[in-house]
Known about the structure:
298 residues
Amino acid sequence: MSHGIGKGDAVFTTNFSFFATAEVISLVGATPIFVDIDEDTFNLNYKLLDLEINRVKKEGNLNPKCIIAVDLFGLPAEYNKISKIAKKNNLLLIEDAAQSFGATYDDKKTCSFGDIAATSFYPAKPFGCYGDGGAIFTNDSKIAEICRSIRVHGQGTDKYDNIRVGINSRLDTIQAAVLINKFEIFDEELRLRNLIAKKYTTLLMDYVKTPYIPNNCKSSWAQYSIIIENREPMIEKLNNNKIPTAIFYKIPFNKNPIFNSNGNYAISNKVSKKILSLPMHPYLNENDIKKIADLFKN
Ligand SMILES: *Cc1c(COP(=O)(O)O)cnc(C)c1O
């Protein structure tokens, strides 16, 4: 909204994320162009991104305007590569860091990549409040000013001076109070999540495909997601032992009738059938991790 992206514009993003990533593109009237993912990181495949941009340019029906990269499950996208592609093609780069607050890429924190980043404080995210909330990050003071205005119904100099069409996107004071306090323990929670992920991987690597974290990245572990053949019996077994599981995401964007995109999405289609997320939070104890691993072992 701050850049006036809308009808006739193409926005490139991953085919495999939470609905909101694609939803915002359609919400402003632009056309989402979905790109398949890397099989190991589950993030946007930058080589295919380059191809898709060239294809849309060649076809000439849409104006390529923007890339939205997602840091899925807390793992940063390939920003070295994606930033270069954005620059080369003169595209805005937005980082969807809803799941990756606290993660790093080349020792640089997420929410600092591209032109604008956004995170979510929804309770299930690594840095969650007790309701709804989120934040936008940018170094561009002009865009920051526009975002502040959009946030409060397109506010101008005062409450009843409305200078553009905006939305209601205020952060409740009560949620800010929760976040200020949780921020003090956030680094410790991040350390604990990393420790738990390490334990999971040690215990599970012989039975399933455990998460791949490139050397230049640290994940914030919004989810611990494995790849498992024939997941249904394992889900049943875990649930019978009172261990909750979740599937992120069962339906890649190309298969959602709202978007109905035809193209080659072999990897996201395959991953969506085999992925499974296990319990992940900073206070998961050693016994629980072992109990979960034993069920896989058996
Ligand atoms: C949760 C999530 C969002 C949306 O966050 P809200 O706070 O619900 O607006 C967007 N993108 C991704 C990848 C998410 O996981």
